[in-house]
Design goal:
It is a single chain. The chain is mostly helical. It has two helices and no strands. The chain is rod-shaped and about 120 Å long.
């Protein structure tokens, strides 16, 4: 078996690892999008309650409850901002992992290509030697 043939299972494993890394990146990006949407929703809710307070559509008896509710939503928004930041970091880590896997797989592909070229060149040299030997023995026979 040729060098390239012996290394092909390794190349297949690297390609599989790259595909899995891409899948993990897609999951991380989906999670980040979901976290960002939750943050947008929280800001929208807080803005809506603040607007109600500002225009005076909240009764005085429930004003304090509304203000406390807005404060809780703002607290949740801060926590959600941290979750978005963590999701961003997870996406960055996953993207770096994809790049690392890509580089490893690409490097091995280039190596396998060089091995295949060398093997093909060796076969051509061997064939040329056989032809040269055949023509020289034929000349001697004539």
């Amino acid at each position: 078996m040729s060098r390239a043939g012996r290394l092909q299972p390794v190349a297949d494993l690297l390609m599989q690892a790259e595909q899995q890394a891409r899948q993990r990146l897609a999951l991380r990006e989906a999670e980040r999008a979901a976290q960002q949407q939750r943050l947008v929703d929280l800001h929208r809710y807080a803005d809506e309650y603040r607007r109600r307070i500002r225009i005076g559509s909240v009764e005085v008896a429930t004003l304090r409850d509304h203000q406390q509710f807005v404060a809780r939503i703002e607290g949740l928004a801060l926590a959600q901002e941290r979750a978005v930041h963590e999701a961003d970091e997870a996406c960055g880590d996953a993207a770096r992992e994809v790049l690392r896997c890509q580089r490893r797989a690409e490097g091995l592909k280039r190596l396998l290509g060089r091995y295949r070229v060398r093997a093909r060149e060796q076969v051509e040299r061997n064939e040329q030697h056989v032809l040269d030997d055949w023509t020289s023995t034929r000349r001697r026979a004539v």
